[in-house]
Structures are given as C-alpha cells and as structure tokens.
Specification:
Number of domains: 2
Number of helices: 1
Order of helices and strands: EHEEEE
Distance between the termini: 23 Å
Structural class: mainly beta
Strand order of the largest sheet: 3-4-5
Largest sheet: 3 strands, antiparallel
Helix content: under 10%
Strand content: 25-35%
Length: 99
C-alpha cells in the first residue's frame, strides 16, 4: 500500500501524492502509494490489517488491526496489537494534517 524510501531524499509533497503515487511501480519506486484503495482491502470483519517494516532497524515489524481508516480518519478506533517490535505507534496509525 505504501513505500517510502528516504535514502534518496524524496518526499510525498501533497495529499494527492500520498493517495496515489507510482501505483504500478511498487517494488522499484522510492515513493509508492495506493492508499486511495485501502477501503477495498479490509478484512472480512471490516478491519484494517496494517504492518510497518523497518528494514534499517534489523527488519523490526509493527503489525496490528484497527477499525479506522488511517488515510481518512484522525481518531484511531478498534486498535488490536498483533506484533509490536518498536513502540513508536500510538495505538494505530492515523491521518495527521501538517498544513
């Protein structure tokens, strides 16, 4: 759904970028997103199954379920931890408006 490789100094520059960027180039692009299709990938019980992988930190993984859409909602609901190697998420992922 999302790949952001910071090693080349590239960043998403707008909400449109974050919604869909290089959608057909998931394995090659430093910036990749298909977050605009996230609703279509809910689990059968309507939850989001999310996973963050940190390759620069020995492949540590944070994995969890939540009810709220992290691309559309600021309030996190229905958080359920599966595996949290790094305690850097605060009960799920949420939309953060920076501007």
């Amino acid at each position: 759904m999302l790949r952001h490789d910071l090693r080349n100094g590239q960043f998403f520059i707008s909400e449109e970028d974050v919604a869909s960027k290089n959608p057909d180039d998931a394995f090659e692009a430093d910036l990749f997103s298909r977050l605009n299709t996230l609703d279509a990938l809910r689990t059968p019980d309507a939850k989001y199954h999310l996973r963050l992988v940190y390759p620069e930190l020995d492949g540590s993984v944070n994995e969890w379920l939540q009810d709220s859409n992290p691309f559309k909602e600021q309030k996190i609901s229905g958080f359920h931890k599966i595996k949290i190697d790094l305690d850097i998420t605060e009960e799920g992922t949420r939309l953060v408006k920076t501007r």
